[in-house]
Structures are given as structure tokens and as C-alpha cells.
């Protein structure tokens, strides 16, 4: 059976004929997608309120980069270890029930984190363990949510849906840190963590009330390990999918270290802290949001191959400028451009991947995507932390820029040929 790009079209939410396929407006016009999009936006805002507060708290507790790396790894490390398992679950069980269970568990863990943070000197081991638990939920939620998208909008509107989802993620990176900063000023980190716990309930409401079929499409009765193998084989069978996964994995490992080291870069390189640091991070997030939106509007009809190559080279140049400058007047626009190029790249790669994957293995392939995209970021942070403590942040950022520029030579999203069938791994009907 061919498990990459099946011949069927997804019913989605009934795209209106007066909308241009693949644009933001066409995806947004569909009620099922729109409801879950709003729930996800609210939850993402809470997540970034918590993320920014965790980074500041980690730096305040130690004053060193290594603990920021540890917290980042605890938060995103499960994406590396468990995303393939989360993808297998997304193909194996009802995705609606799975997402609701995850959201409830993350609510509970965020409330526990708030209790721990009430102390004047929060226990660092407890912080790491609780954040790791929240990360486990995220590692299952990521591929599950990605696998749901085609059922909500249909194949024609996937690029618009991916762009809107990316825009929501990055709008939350703007709004979340600002709200998190003000909330922390009022009630400390504990209030931020408790507020984040409540935002997961918006996901519970949205997923529980939307009308769509989220039952598994490719569960063959095989073991979870066998299902993961099938997802890997499906990815390796298509050269485009393989290049996408290699590109995003290498990029995340080597070129995104700066995102979670921004507290240190802001203070030691740029001489700013507090609200100014929050605005620096918000500039990156605003650029990322606009980059994602551009893929569903002004760039919606341009070849994704051209957009991916161009964006990664722009990213490399902007990151080099950000790494070398000590001027806030240069750093703010540089990090803005970096964010925009980053999410043009992510939207182009993710859309291409989704369009080449059949729903029977979608969760598993998207699990591999989440493992490479989000899972390797904390590994890079964990490696870079001691290096930055030893030789400074500039060489690390310039190395990331060099890797990104080299990856521009690897990307080739030529979709003229359909993906081949996967030999030897037939999947039964659900």
C-alpha cells in the first residue's frame, strides 16, 4: 500500500468556493479548524508566559547558562525521546480523547509547578522534574495536533492551516512573554504557572466540542514499536521527506541555540534586562508570526522550494548579524528578521511534509518531524551551555549561522514526482 500521499482528499470543514485554496482566509473560514485554532492560541499564550518565566527563573537561581540549558532540555527533551511514541499513539487511538487527556494532565502539572515556585528558593530538582512531565505531554500533543489538521481543513488548505497555526504559535510568543512579565511582576512566577495551567482548559473545550472524525485511520493491530518502524520506513522511502527531516533536525540542533539563551545574550552581550529583554524576545516572535502569515498570504502561490532555500539563507545572515552586534538598535531588527525567515522555512517544510503523507501514518511521520524540530533544540542548548560559559556566545551563534547557510544547499523540495510506495510494510485498514 502506498502510505505517502494517499489518493483520497480530506473532507475537512467544507471550504467555501469563494476562498483561494491554501490561503489563511480559506483555512480560517472552516468552523472546526477555527474553534481548535482559538483553543490552541489561548493555550500557547499560557505556555509562553510560562516559558519566558522559567528561563528568567533558571538564570536568577544560578546566574549561569548551564541551568538554562537543563531547564530547556527538561521542557523540550521529551520531544526528542517520545515524539515517535506520541505519533504512534496518534495513529493508534482516538485523537480527540488523547488530546483531552494530555491537556488535563498538563493543567495538573502546571498547578504543581506553581506550588513549588511559591518558595523563595524553589527546589531545582523539583522544577526540572515537573517541567519534564509537562514536556512529556507536549511530546504527545505535538504530533497528535499535527495529524488532526488535514481532517479539519482538507488537503487544499493545508498550507493556510499550517501558516495560521504557526502564526498563532508566534503571536503567543509575543503576547505570552509580555503577559508573563506583567503577571510575574504582580504575583511572581507561581501566578504565571497557575495561569498557564488554566489555559489548557481552552484546548479541552475546543477539542471536546468540535464536530470532526478523529478516530485512528491506520491502526493495523501491530505493536507500537512496529508502528514506529513503519513510520520511519515511510519517511525513508521518499527522498523529499528524508531531506526535510534531515534539514529541520540539523537546523534545530545547531542554529536555534540563541532562542533559549536570550536571557544571557540580552544581559551580557546587549546590556539589557527586564522589560527590554521581553521586548527583544517579542521582536523575534513578531517576526516569526509575520513570516508564517506571509506564507498564507503574499507568498502563498510561490514555490515552497524557492521559499525554503531563500529563507534559510536570510536566516543565516540575520543570525550572524545578531551574534556579532552589541547594539540594541541592530539586535532588535536582526532578531526580527531571524524570526521571520525561521517560520517561512518551517511553514514551507511542514506543509510539504503534510502534503506527502497519508493519514494512515501521519501521526508517526509528524512524530519524527516534532522530534527533529522541537526535540533537538534542547540538545543543542544542553551542548551549547557549557561552551558558551567557556568561550562566549558569539562563536556558538556564528557556527549556527554557518550551518544554516550550508543547509540551504541541501534543501530540494521538488514535488514533481509522486512519492514511492513503501515496500514490505503494508498497513491494514482501520
CATH superfamily: MFS general substrate transporter like domains
Indicate the mean pLDDT: 83
Largest sheet: none
The CATH architecture can be named as Up-down Bundle
Work out the helix count: 15
How many beta strands in the DSSP annotation?
Answer: 0
Radius of gyration: 20 Å
Given this structure, which CATH class is correct? Answer: Mainly Alpha
Q: Helicity level, as a percent range?
A: over 70%
Query: Class by helix and strand content?
Result: mainly alpha
Which blocks of ≥5 consecutive residues have pLDDT under 50? 1-17, 422-430
SSE ordering: HHHHHHHHHHHHHHH
Shape: globular
Beta-strand portion reads under 5%
Distance between the termini: 13 Å
* CATH fold-level assignment: Growth Hormone, Chain: A
Total domain units: 1
How is this fold's topology laid out?
Blueprint lengths: L23 H5 L2 H32 L2 H28 L2 H22 L7 H30 L4 H52 L14 H13 L2 H17 L1 H4 L1 H8 L5 H21 L8 H21 L3 H28 L6 H30 L1 H15 L23
Helix pairs in contact: 2-3, 2-5, 2-6, 3-5, 3-7, 3-14, 4-5, 4-6, 5-14, 6-11, 6-13, 7-14, 8-13, 8-14, 8-15, 10-11, 11-13, 12-13, 12-15, 14-15
